Amino acid sequence: MTTYNDYRKHYGMKKKTSFKDLVGDKNTELAQKMQEVYGDIDSVEWFVGIWAEDYDEKTNIMGGLLINMVANDAFTQILTNPLLSKQVFNKDTFSKEGFAIIKETSKVSDIIGRNSGIKNDVAVTFNLKASRRTAKVRVRRRDKATDTPIPCVPLQTANAK
To answer: Which of 77, 100, 120 corresponds to the end of one domain?
Structure first.
């Protein structure tokens, strides 16, 4: 496996130039230990580097290289995922009921509505509050008969770490 900095270069990111640059200003002890172990920033293995990389906890949940790698994986997988292949995604692969549910699902609100029991039109919003590191999913709906909004209902609170 190639080094952490080689992966940064591959993803079009600037290489880290020092251990302090990698771990941030506040973590001098870690920077010193890494200097002792590796000697040169270009010797840091990818796996060690992605977990040592500093990031802003108010806006991110991981370092920049890992964010780029996860995003790249997510967007390339959607195009190459075998479930999207005609040989795998067909009526012979799923139960009749499961295939019908998949075919009828076209938006996130379909999934929320199906799993929450809310059957009216549903609008889904996601809120990430960086200061508390919690994600809240809220559902808004409209009464079909009167076309009036029904108050926002907290559906779920999940730890966003």
So the answer is: 77
